[in-house]
Amino acid sequence: MRKTKRYPVSGANSLWHVYDTVPFWKVVKNFVFIQSARYSPVLSWKNFIYRTFLKMEVGKETSFALMVMVDVMFPERIKVGANSVIGYNTTILAHEYLIDEYRIGDVIIGDRVLVGANTTILPGITIGNDAIVSAATLVNKDVPEGCFVGGNPMRIIYTKEQMQERKGKNI
């Protein structure tokens, strides 16, 4: 189960209440910096923008590929460990607006994690250290440490033990 906090709304759908949730100027500022980072070809600049202006926790030597889209409303709720790779056009969400409620949850991505291109990570997700997420995966539940996961819906392809066994055979 994803770890999100639920906030019920009444009347119009929850997205109509967006600026009761987060200040308009925060969204504008975040949008400008996120778009700058998305198109920046320099990894150190991206990490500087994420850490300094968006208050994300980004580990040493982590790489965000071109076009990665981090949550525009709550980027400070995203943490990515050291030496991880976030693939091209990946989306990392810390919020979701539904009809009768909205939800907010932290996203925690461990150390040495590989997230393939075009992946979507939903709010309230934890991805363990040394995990691999296949390209085009919808990460809708936590990923255990060391696992290889993929698909939509996401499933475990190899467990940590199976991955270690496969690595042992390749040496």
UniProtKB/TrEMBL annotation:
Q: What Gene3D superfamilies does this protein map onto?
A: Hexapeptide repeat proteins
User: Which Pfam families does its entry note?
Assistant: Hexapep_2
**This protein's record includes keyword Transferase:** yes
Per its UniProt entry, which superkingdom is the organism in? Bacteria
Q: Which UniProt keywords apply?
A: Transferase
* InterPro entries with a match to the protein in the record: Hexapep, Trans_hexapeptide_repeat, Trimer_LpxA-like_sf
Molecular-function GO term, any one: transferase activity
Protein name according to UniProt: Succinyltransferase-like protein
Species per Swiss-Prot/TrEMBL record = Psychrobacillus insolitus
